[in-house]
Amino acid sequence: MTSAEALAMIRPHPPAPPQRRRWAGAPYVVVGLLAAVLAALAARTVTLPINSDLGLVQTLPPAYWVGMVVLNGAFVLALGSGAHHRTSQWAMATLLCALVVTMYGAASFASSTTRGEVAWRHVGIAEALVSSGQVTTQADAYFSWPGFFALLGTFSRASGIQALDLTPWAPVATPKGVRSTG
User: Fold this and answer.
1) Hey, which end of the chain has fewer CB within 10 Å, N or C?
2) Model pTM greater than 0.70?
3) What are the tens digits of pLDDT across the range 49-75?
4) Closest by alpha carbon to 83, among 93, 71, 92, 74?
5) What's the rounded Cα separation, in Å, for the pair 178 and 113?
6) Rounded Cα–Cα distance for residues 33 and 42 (Å)
């Protein structure tokens, strides 16, 4: 027996890494997604037009708020249970996406109509850019940022989805914390 073999027998072996359960966050995701579906379906029942001082918040039915509380609870429980380990990052990402879509998409679930004149302007500029194939900087200050409008127009043509149908979902794609504040 060599000295290296003897040392290997004497040295304690490092403990085996703990078994990570790949699907540890699955129950939280299932509950969270069901809660998000409940909230979305509840938001679709809102009667339009909304005539209240608090807007949509005041008119959302209790089922929406139950769905939001359950979804937030599933997220918090998943975070506290250790499901946030590397192997369950998919679960946390799924719950976070469900939270963002449910929270920022409530108005889009309630109404499919585009709100705000800015959205209509953006769609018009994107369609003008795609149809002409040129950037006209003298027409409007918005034409100084052709990348966004070209992307919107190209995505609209490639997917077959009208740009106007995408605008109600802009708050979901760019939540307030992500938008630039300039």
Assistant:
1) C
2) no
3) 777 777 778 888 999 999 999 999 998
4) 92
5) 23
6) 14
